[in-house]
Amino acid sequence: MSRERLLEERKNFRKNRPYGFVGKPASCDDGSVDLKRWECRIPGPEKTAWEGGCYPVTMIFPDSYPNNPPECNFPAGFFHPNVYPSGKVCLSLLDNDAELGGQWAPSINIVQILVGIQELLRSPNVFSPAQAPACELLKKNPKAYETKIKEQAKKYPAPEDED
């Protein structure tokens, strides 16, 4: 079921991806396609400190997908209150434990996941921090937080031709 769903998602993503977003299965060493590992890029939301950056995210799909969500990771050390130091994204949309506020549903697709992560960039959840330094800086000194985000955006420039 997972493979069929991911093949359908790939087809739909090619047709319906939001402007500036990139997502495709990774290539294996032998040149074949690894449907369970996607390399993606999320554009920084406009009119935010994130604007101008295009942030790499790796999505790793379990064999039980779509019943269980993928794990989504920015590069290790990515600065955001809801991203663990390892790069793992902490987002209720990617959690299937409803008792703990998880909102995962098998109907959620890759575009919705990527747009949800982009929205997390715009609106961090300070009540569920995964990275204390980023969360504390955002709460105590929002201007310094914004400056740090703008510096990070320079590390991940948007490509000249996004389409």
- Overall tally of domains: 1
Structural class: alpha+beta
Q: What is the second-level CATH architecture?
A: Roll
Spatial strand order of the main sheet: 1-2-3-4
Key features?
163 residues, alpha+beta, Ubiquitin Conjugating Enzyme, 4 helices, ubl conjugation pathway, UBQ-conjugating_AS, ATP binding, Ub_conjugating_enzyme, UBC core domain-containing protein
Architecture blueprint of SSEs:
Elements: H1 2-16, E1 22-27, E2 33-43, E3 54-60, E4 71-73, H2 110-122, H3 132-140, H4 142-155
Any overview of this molecule?
- The protein has 163 residues and is an alpha+beta fold.
- The chain has a single domain, classed as Ubiquitin Conjugating Enzyme.
- The chain has four helices and four strands.
- The protein has helices at residues 2-16, 110-122, 132-140, 142-155, and strands at residues 22-27, 33-43, 54-60, 71-73.
- The protein has a four-stranded antiparallel β-sheet with strand order 1-2-3-4.
- The two termini are 31 Å apart.
- The model has no long low-confidence stretch (mean pLDDT 94).
Kindly summarize this structure in a few lines.
The protein has helices at 2-16, 110-122, 132-140, 142-155; strands at residues 22-27, 33-43, 54-60, 71-73. With 163 residues, the protein is of the alpha+beta class.
